[in-house]
Every structure is written in structure tokens, then in C-alpha cells.
Specification:
The protein has two domains: about 160 residues, Deoxyuridine 5'-Triphosphate Nucleotidohydrolase, Chain A (Distorted Sandwich); about 170 residues, Deoxyuridine triphosphatase (dUTPase) (Deoxyuridine 5'-Triphosphate Nucleotidohydrolase, Chain A, Distorted Sandwich). Helices cover about 10% and strands about 40% of the residues. Strands 1, 2, 3, 4, 6, 7, 8, 9, 10 and 12 form a ten-stranded antiparallel β-sheet that branches.
Length: about 375
């Protein structure tokens, strides 16, 4: 029988507690749940049968439903049961198969799945009455919708496709700087001997040298190509890298210029470790430090980079997009911060151990949709 969360505890729900939410009806679905929807600290969310192309993104606002607002902004309806292509530069909305009836002590947060972010597919969850994206307040009862905007590649999706994931939590959970320093000392969260830690989290920097030790010629990243074929979201290892990506090599300068509105896949200089009793998240980059966005898909599960889960040396893969102006990115420049949160209990299965994990022990790695 799934474990029940402790009423007074604060932390992130592990897989067994999420199973308990499903058993109690706090999380329900229009179709039966699939076994592999449960991740160590999150639940994969599935697209429903219908999508709508929108003329603009929106939030419903307090005491308003998504369905009511949808009537004002929808352009046309799309049947996803047989599959449909979502085009770049367009905004779509899909009602998800999952719904929530959360207890008063449980809130939720959503993020794109890792593979979604690495395809430059921008997604965010919208709930009835929401005044912000991806955040579900305690005691929420109602449907969930996913806004989808492919940026670089058109994608083929269908009912049941998974583009987003959701975490559940009780209380305020983020570790402060003192607790984070203590955990770094015990668990070696990142490979730097003296990491940059403050109230916003633990810093990650970008690797622009590759595996050559700084010599020219090493692969350091990829830039998306324009006018690429369609990617089937549900078919791993089906796409040729050269049809979608231009490789970027170290030229010995220790820097690259990010072109406006281009999409890049890069890797962190540091190896990252998420111990079994913690979860981590890459928070949005501070725009005061650079004109670019890093990491659409921010969740790191318990066990990521953990030695005993086969993850020694796991890097964070970075989804990078410059904004309005070209921006010079230097090797070792801080590009984001990881925050860590305690789990309410150890997950039954860790990332990379007992869970099919495409990105454990990764260095620079594209999404699972591309052939190695």
C-alpha cells in the first residue's frame, strides 16, 4: 500500500506519495494511469483529445475558468486522437487527461519534461482561476490545461503524448543558503570545490571547452537549424542529428556569440548531484546578468548524478535562447542556479535506477528523439 504523507512535514512528494494521491482521488484522469507516468518526484501529464490554436496566450485570472477565456482567444479546434502537427511560431492549448482535487495542505508546480525543453518546445500549465503559470495552489479542484508553443521544430503529438510533468509538495521547501552549504559539504552537489552559493541557489556555469581540455576542435554545443522536418514526440531515436542541428566546436577563444532568436544546446561546466532525499530545480536566469534564457525544463529528480544510481559525472544540459540582442557567452560564466528541496521520503525508485532515464551520466546530450 502506498505510503501516506506526514501531515506536518514540508517537502516534495516522492513516487509513493503521488501514488497515494492517485488512490485517494486527489489526482484523477480521464483514462487509466500508466505505470511509467510516475517518476521519482513527479508525475508525467498526458495530452487530451483536443487542442485549440490560440491567437494569444492568456491567464484566466481570479474566479475565471480557462474554458470561459478560451472562447475569446481560440482560432480553431484540432483533433489529437489520430495525431496532429503543431507548427512553429504558433500557440496551442490542450486540456490534459489529468485533473486535480488537492487537499488544503498540498500544492503543485509544473515544468516541461527534459526532452520537451531540449526540442525548444515552450510549455506551461494553466489552471482555472490562475494568475500565474505552472503553479497550482493548495485545495485546487479542477482541470489542467497545457499551453504549447514549438519554437524551432514542428512537432507531431497525439492524445496521450507527454510534454510536461508535475511535482506535489507540502509547505515551503527550498533550502536556504546555510542549509545548501551544509548539504554541499556532505553530499558534493556540484563538482566545484568552492561553489558559488547564495539565497538564490547554487551556481552553474557553462562549458565552452568540451572534453579537449581547452584545445580547439572539441564539440561544445548545437544550434538548431531552420526549416527542419517534423519531430514525432512519441518516437525516440528516430531523427538524424544533421537534419536538425548544426554542431558548435571550440575555436580556442573560450566564448561564443548567441544570435538573437536562435536556440542552443550547451552543457554545464560542473557535474551535478541530486541526493536521494532531495529534489532540485533550475530556476529562471536573472535577466540582470545577461540577455538570454536558460533551461526551459528545470526539474532534476532524486538520484540524478548519484554514483549508486549510475550517474557519476552527470552534467546539466542547458537550453539557451538569446533575446533581443547578440550576447557573448564566456566559458565558466554563470548561467543559472539550482535550488534544492527536501523530499518527504526517499523515492521507491531513483532517477537512473529502476527508472528508464535517458539522461543519467550525461555530458552534452540532445533529446532522446535523435539517433546517437
Amino acid at each position: 500500500m502506498a505510503a501516506e504523507p506526514a501531515a506536518a512535514a514540508s517537502g516534495i512528494f516522492p513516487d509513493t506519495y503521488i501514488a497515494a494521491l492517485i488512490s485517494s482521488g486527489a489526482v484523477s484522469a480521464a483514462l487509466p494511469f500508466e505505470d511509467n507516468q510516475l517518476q521519482p518526484a513527479s508525475l508525467d501529464l498526458r495530452l487530451g483529445a483536443r487542442a485549440w490554436r490560440l491567437r494569444a496566450s492568456f491567464l484566466p485570472g481570479a474566479e475565471k475558468t480557462v474554458a470561459d477565456r478560451l472562447e475569446q482567444v481560440k482560432l480553431h479546434e484540432i483533433d489529437l486522437q489520430a495525431g496532429a502537427v503543431l507548427e512553429t511560431g504558433c500557440v496551442y492549448l490542450v486540456r490534459l487527461l489529468e485533473e486535480l482535487a488537492l487537499p488544503a495542505t498540498v500544492s503543485a508546480a509544473a515544468n516541461p519534461k527534459s526532452s520537451t525543453g531540449r526540442l525548444d518546445v515552450f510549455t506551461r500549465i494553466i489552471a482555472d482561476g490562475a494568475r500565474e503559470f505552472d503553479k497550482i495552489p493548495p485545495a485546487y479542484h479542477g482541470p489542467l490545461y497545457l499551453e504549447i508553443s514549438p519554437r524551432s521544430f514542428p512537432i507531431l503529438v497525439r492524445s496521450g503524448s507527454r510534454l510536461a510533468q508535475m511535482r506535489f509538495q507540502s509547505g515551503l521547501t527550498m533550502l536556504d543558503s546555510a542549509a545548501l552549504r551544509a548539504l554541499q559539504s556532505r553530499e558534493h552537489l556540484v563538482s566545484d570545490e568552492i561553489p558559488d552559493i547564495n539565497s538564490a541557489g547554487i551556481a552553474l556555469s557553462v562549458d565552452l571547452q568540451g572534453d579537449s581540455g581547452g584545445r580547439a576542435g572539441a564539440l561544445i554545443g548545437y544550434r538548431s537549424k531552420r526549416l527542419s522536418p517534423v519531430i514525432n514526440i512519441d518516437k525516440p531515436a528516430a531523427c538524424a542529428i544533421e537534419d536538425f542541428w548544426e554542431p558548435i566546436y571550440n575555436r580556442g577563444s573560450g566564448q561564443i556569440v548567441l544570435d538573437p532568436n536562435e536556440f542552443y544546446i550547451l552543457a554545464s561546466r560542473e557535474a551535478v548531484h541530486v541526493p536521494p532525499l532531495y529534489a532540485a530545480e533550475m530556476r529562471p536566469f536573472d535577466p540582470l546578468v545577461g540577455e538570454f534564457r536558460v533551461h526551459y525544463a528545470g526539474f532534476f529528480d532524486p538520484g540524478f548524478g548519484h554514483d549508486r544510481a549510475g550517474g557519476a559525472g552527470a552534467r546539466a544540459v542547458l537550453e539557451v535562447r538569446s533575446h533581443e540582442v547578440p550576447f557573448i557567452l564566456e566559458h565558466g560564466q554563470i548561467i543559472g542556479r539550482l535550488v534544492y528541496e527536501p523530499m518527504l521520503a526517499r523515492p521507491e525508485k531513483l532517477y537512473g535506477a529502476g527508472v528508464k532515464s535517458h539522461y543519467q551520466a550525461q555530458k552534452l546530450k540532445l533529446s532522446k528523439h535523435f539517433k546517437d
